[in-house]
Amino acid sequence: MIDRDGYRPNVGIILCNARNQVFWGKRIREHSWQFPQGGIKYGESPEQAMYRELMEEVGLRPEHVKILGRTRDWLRYDVPTNWIKREWRGSYRGQKQIWFLLRLIGRDSDVSLRASTHPEFDAWRWSDYWVAMDSVIEFKRDVYRMALKELSMHLTEHRRPRVAERVDQLVR
Questions:
Q1: Comparing C-alpha atoms, which of 121, 5, 26, 110 is closest to residue 63?
Q2: Is the pTM above the cut of 0.85?
Q3: Which domain of life, per UniProt?
Q4: What is the DSSP string of 103-170?
Q5: In this structure, are strands 65-70 and 94-104 parallel, antiparallel, or unpaired?
Q6: pLDDT tens digit string along 115-143?
Q7: Rounded to an integer, what distance in angstroms lies between the CA atom of residue 103 and that of residue 1?
Q8: I need a labelling partner for 163 at 20 to 30 A (CA). Which of 108, 129, 146, 169 fits?
């Protein structure tokens, strides 16, 4: 499902623990790390897609997390032409995403990267909220920064990462 501007609707998930560290998944058989994300199927709301993707990619159910916030609008990124399937060229530009900030209220042991028959990740870790972006594929970095910045306001005040100090320090 691609919109008239060439963007595929998608959800992104920033999962944090009680220390406001964020979940990073290592793409299977690759050396890049990313947040869980995935397409919104026809008839799904962004929230329904988020819970489906959370289960498929991380093995977590709704009772394992609490929604802290979501982005107000779609955040978009363009995919480089050489990454686009030949049959999609000309009609597909990239992804438009609604991002969710979730708090893990379950245990680390509830995470299961093998919850689906087609796993996305082969490893995971907790990292500081304002983690360096050098391990994220380049064309997604700006959207990650925008989502992290917008959603940081939903974190517990005394544990909130300091945006003004850290956003300029993110590796480009």
A1: 110
A2: yes
A3: Bacteria
A4: EE-S-GGG--TTSSSS-SEEEEEEE-TT--STTS-GGGHHHHHHHHHHHGGGS-GGG---HHHHGGGS
A5: antiparallel
A6: 999 999 999 999 999 877 888 889 999 99
A7: 29
A8: 108
Per-residue pLDDT, averaged over 5-22, amounts to 96
The CATH number of the domain holding residue 155 is: 3.90.79.10
Is the residue at 1 inside a domain?
A: no
Task: Please give the Cα distance from 16 to 40 (Å, whole number).
Answer: 22
Going from the C-alpha of 136 to that of each of 50, 68, 140, 171, 172, the distances in angstroms are: 20, 24, 7, 10, 10
What is the number of domains present in the chain?
1
Distance, in Å, from the CA atom of 126 to the CA atom of 15, rounded to the nearest integer, reads: 9
Is 38 domain-assigned?
Answer: yes
